[in-house]
Every structure is written in structure tokens, then in C-alpha cells.
Specification:
The protein has 182 residues and is mainly beta. The chain has one helix at residues 2-18; strands spanning 44-49, 56-66, 72-80, 89-94, 100-104, 110-114, 121-131, 137-138, 142-145, 151-162, 171-172, 178-181. β7 and β8 form a beta hairpin. The longest helix is centred in the first third of the chain and has 17 residues, at 2-18.
Length: 182
């Protein structure tokens, strides 16, 4: 019985200590705080064309740099051919009217694989982006702004690394394009 009384007294004390006391009357204060939320239009990216470096001869290896103006330049001993030609990845993007957004592309090289044998690979890196009406800039962290209709467009270029004696074939891969409000 003594244990029951002790437990009952402990419960009453704990309940009494856990109640919240409110000061009322003299010396009290009230602060009215504003609350708000912003709802934004989801960003939508649409690929218009994919990234294509064109056709080339590997020679002793090097790089093929495809800038955002669809102009190729080469380092090392890579030979070029006429067809098929190169073209940039191009996109349209929509979002909140006059809102700023940031674009992210791969931060490390992506791998493209020869489609017939699936053993030969090349890498792509050094991404560049050109937004509608802006100059070329490095892609990771590049920013732009939607126009008065909530629209924009951009073009992507990159650098393809070709090894000496690179196996012939069609190489394919994918990369992510991420846009978020800035």
C-alpha cells in the first residue's frame, strides 16, 4: 500500500510539473506575427534536340569541343567528316513569370558506350550553356530568368574525349538537366 501511495504521489507531482502556466494580467505582452506562403508554377523542361558531336576519325586521339553555337573544334589528331553534322542539345523551359532559375548539369564526366559491342567508351565533360539572348557560360550553376510569359530556352555544348584508335561505332548515353528556382 505504501508503494501505491508513493507511485500515486509521484504521478501527481509529474502531472503538476508538466502543466504550462500562463502569465495573465499585469505585465503581459502580445505580438501579432504575419504568416505567408508562396506557390510557384512547376518548372518544365522540354528537349528539342539531343547532343550530337557528329562523325569523326579517331586518329591518335584528342577532344571534340562542341560550343553552344554548334561549332566544333578539335585538339589532338582527330579527323572530321562532313556527314552527319554535329548539333547542340536544345531545350525550351517554362516556369514562373519573370522568376530566376538555376541550371545544373553533370559535375563529373558522363560515359557514352558503343552501342553494338557495349565495351568501348568515351567520356563527355566541360558542359557549357547559352540561354536565350545571353552569352555562353559554364553550365553548373548557370542562371537565367523566365520572360513575361514564363518561358526561356537554352542550348548545351560539351567536350567529347576520343582515345587513340577509338573503336568505330555509334556511341550513346544520357545526362541529366536539372532546373530549379533560384
Amino acid at each position: 500500500m505504501k508503494n501505491s501511495i508513493t507511485i500515486f504521489a509521484a504521478i501527481i507531482m509529474m502531472a503538476g510539473l508538466s502543466t504550462k502556466t500562463m502569465a495573465q494580467g499585469v505585465g503581459g505582452d502580445l505580438e501579432n506575427t504575419a504568416v505567408w506562403a508562396k506557390i510557384v508554377v512547376p518548372i518544365s523542361i522540354t528537349e528539342v534536340t539531343d547532343l550530337h558531336f557528329g562523325t569523326m576519325l579517331p586518329g591518335t586521339g584528342g577532344t571534340c569541343v562542341l560550343n553552344t553555337a554548334n561549332s566544333r573544334s578539335f585538339t589532338g589528331a582527330i579527323g572530321t567528316t562532313v556527314a552527319p553534322t554535329s548539333y547542340n542539345a536544345t531545350y525550351t523551359i517554362t516556369g514562373g513569370v519573370s522568376s530566376a532559375y538555376i541550371l545544373s548539369l553533370p559535375s563529373s564526366p558522363i560515359v557514352v558506350t558503343e552501342t553494338a559491342g557495349n565495351t568501348a567508351t568515351m567520356t563527355i565533360d566541360a558542359w557549357t550553356v547559352k540561354f536565350l539572348g545571353q552569352i555562353e557560360e559554364v553550365a553548373n550553376g548557370a542562371t537565367s530568368q523566365f520572360d513575361a510569359n514564363g518561358a526561356d530556352a537554352f542550348t548545351i555544348g560539351a567536350t567529347l574525349h576520343v582515345a587513340a584508335g577509338q573503336a568505330s561505332g555509334i556511341y550513346a548515353g544520357t545526362f541529366d538537366v536539372i532546373a530549379d528556382y533560384n
